[in-house]
Amino acid sequence: MLAGVLGDAKTSTPTGGSQAGTGPAQLARVYSPQPAKAALMVVIAHPDDEAYFPGLVPYLSRVKRLPLVVIVMTSGEAGIDPPGDRRVREEEMRQACLVYGMPNEPIFARFADGAYLGTLEDNWKLWGGEEKAAEYLVQQIRRFRPDVIVTHALDGEYGHPNHVGCALSVTKAFAGARDAIAFPVPPGGPAPWMPKKLYLHRWPTRPMVFRWDIPIPALNGRTCLEVGNTGGRLHVSQGYADKDFAELDGDQSTKFGLYATNVGPDRIGGDFFENIDLGSYTRPRD
User: Fold this and answer.
1) Which DSSP helix (H) or strand (E) runs through 31?
2) What is the pLDDT of residues 140-168, one digit of tens each?
3) What is the C-alpha end-to-end distance of the chain, expressed in Å?
4) How far is the CA of 40 from the CAs of 18, 35, 66, 144, 237, in angstroms?
5) Does the predicted TM-score (pTM) go above 0.70?
6) Cα 146 from chain centroid (whole Å)
């Protein structure tokens, strides 16, 4: 547990589960509360979309040991057979995140899944309008006050409207979280917050390559990619039980770009937290 950042632990029993006969047994688990302040926020469109950068969550949780929030915009309910049950892929995501080393649960925004063969306009219709997701993310950014945010490529990785909508909403929320005029603070809501950096997957301007394939002593000589693959196999409903999670994007999984910054450009590279003081975060003792 991250002393001084995370509160008391809680016990949680999942309300849903993997499809019958396909997933691990459901057990009560001890989760820490969400952090009062996050060093980094990851925003993805579906459970399993961490596959586009599969070493990121293990790196932050088990190597850097920094408070992390993962927000999943949809529950992937359109991507199961039969479609509709949000609990299936939510539970797979929870179990994967435990393997990655996250002490707190991922957050499911539960915007509607779908529009796989549709357009961005179809996505906005599913999500209740173009502003809804940005408004939601503004509130989450203000609530958790992340220093750094990471999300999908602006092309949606391969054009998926949910992915594109997610990335566009994050860019809008990054700029809007500090703006109380564009995004008013509701009564009792968190105050405006200015995140320091926003990285997009495969953004070509101010590029950064992050290696996930280096053995790390903190992981007993394993790599972040290996840990990511292990957790990824728990996304059983998506066919990952018998294949490497990282195959989805190959060497593209290492590529990011600094889309926006309030602390200047990266000079050295290879570090999401360059130009950011992490001294206020207390790491757990070994």
Assistant:
1) strand 29-31
2) 999 999 999 999 999 999 999 999 999 99
3) 11
4) 28, 11, 8, 9, 28
5) yes
6) 12
| 81-89: long-range pairs with CB below 8 Å, 24+ | 85/16, 86/16, 86/110, 87/14, 87/15, 87/16, 87/17, 88/16, 88/17, 88/18, 88/19, 88/237, 89/46, 89/47, 89/48, 89/235, 89/237, 89/238
Taking all residues of the chain, what is their mean pLDDT, rounded to a whole number?
88
Residue 216 has pLDDT above 50, yes or no: yes
Residues 261, 252: Cα–Cα separation, whole Å? 22
Q: Which H or E run contains 255? A: strand 255-261
Contact of 90 with 108, CB cutoff 8 Å: yes
Alpha carbons 197 and 259: distance in angstroms, whole number: 8
Question: What is the DSSP code (8-state) at residue 150?
Answer: E
